[in-house]
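Tip: read the tokens left to right.
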């Protein structure tokens, strides 16, 4: 029974994943273009980011997500462009979701304190399944046959186009943003049905409550609070976080869950984060510790992020940047 229970739990949550729920990242500020297209080009000049997430490794057929992003700021046009690639694998049959998209954002200075960045994201999304890797009940029967009576889906992959939009407002110490994903409700059924990915709405923000620095290094130490609220179909999730940065080290603590809404007494998970940041390079690691009823079954989640920022021109002009954390 101890071996069967994790499989049952995995199948239940796989059903929700099949219903169109998006993969999530604990270090969403290390994967800014996935959070909102308004972050495209919100960098001094160029940025490359890589993210890897392994969720619930104790279960068979775990959830693994990869993300790659590149963005650039065009100072002459006050605009940012970005490219985002995401691949998510789930289950023993490698149920996959792959997204390729381009983003655009424009920075508007409202006054001496506030900027607003609207952003858009056009992408192609593809769903796939390796049917040969699935194991059915008639393949493990006493007859010993390796064939199955189950019919493969009508398509090995299914693709569609999608669109997202967002808006971000920020000052020297505060930021708040809203992102709406899957506005075209792309189809993702491998059997040709009209199942679509539901719209996802994300509201995020935060601020630096403490900031210390010097003339040559304006932010040498800071303490920030942040939040992220997401809703997609019938699922709602709230993340509350705290960051402490003392150059070059960053430590973070996140709480995930809405106990009253999610019918949990303590929430879903607590995430611990550690990051190291030098002038152009950042690396972060986080671990999600499950505190719900799945505590003994999932194994939490591991996530690693890498960010590299660089310049392709000799411009020395410093821009007013979004004050959100790097991880």
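Filled-in amino acids:
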């Amino acid at each position: 029974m101890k071996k069967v229970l994790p499989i049952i739990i995995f199948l239940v949550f796989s059903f929700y994943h099949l219903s169109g729920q998006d993969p999530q990242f604990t270090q969403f500020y290390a994967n800014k273009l996935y959070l909102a297209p308004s972050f495209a080009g919100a960098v001094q000049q160029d940025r490359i980011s890589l993210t890897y997430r392994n969720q619930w490794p104790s279960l068979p057929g775990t959830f693994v997500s990869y993300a790659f992003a590149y963005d650039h700021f065009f100072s002459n046009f006050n605009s940012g462009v970005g490219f985002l690639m995401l691949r998510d694998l789930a289950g023993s049959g490698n149920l996959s979701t792959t997204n390729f998209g381009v983003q655009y954002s424009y920075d508007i200075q409202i006054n001496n304190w506030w900027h607003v960045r609207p952003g858009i994201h056009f992408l192609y999304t593809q769903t796939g399944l390796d049917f040969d890797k699935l194991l059915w009940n008639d393949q493990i029967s006493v007859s010993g046959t390796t064939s199955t009576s189950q019919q493969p889906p009508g398509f090995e992959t299914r693709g569609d186009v999608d669109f997202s939009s967002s808006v971000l407002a920020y000052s020297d110490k505060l930021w708040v943003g809203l992102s709406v994903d899957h506005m075209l409700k792309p189809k993702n059924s491998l059997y040709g049905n009209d199942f679509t990915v539901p719209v996802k709405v994300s509201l995020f923000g935060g601020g630096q409550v403490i900031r210390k620095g010097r003339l040559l290094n304006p932010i040498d130490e800071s303490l920030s609070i942040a939040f992220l609220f997401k809703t997609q179909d019938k699922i709602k999730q709230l993340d509350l976080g705290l960051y402490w940065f003392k150059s070059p080290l960053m430590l973070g603590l996140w709480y995930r869950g809405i106990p009253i809404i999610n019918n949990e007494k303590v929430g879903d998970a607590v995430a611990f984060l550690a990051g190291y940041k030098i002038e152009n390079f950042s690396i972060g690691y986080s671990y999600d510790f499950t505190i719900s009823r799945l505590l003994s079954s999932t194994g939490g989640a591991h996530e690693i992020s890498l960010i590299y920022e660089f310049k392709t021109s000799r411009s020395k002009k410093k821009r007013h940047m979004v004050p959100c954390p790097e991880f």
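The longest strand covers residues 115-128. The radius of gyration is 21 Å.
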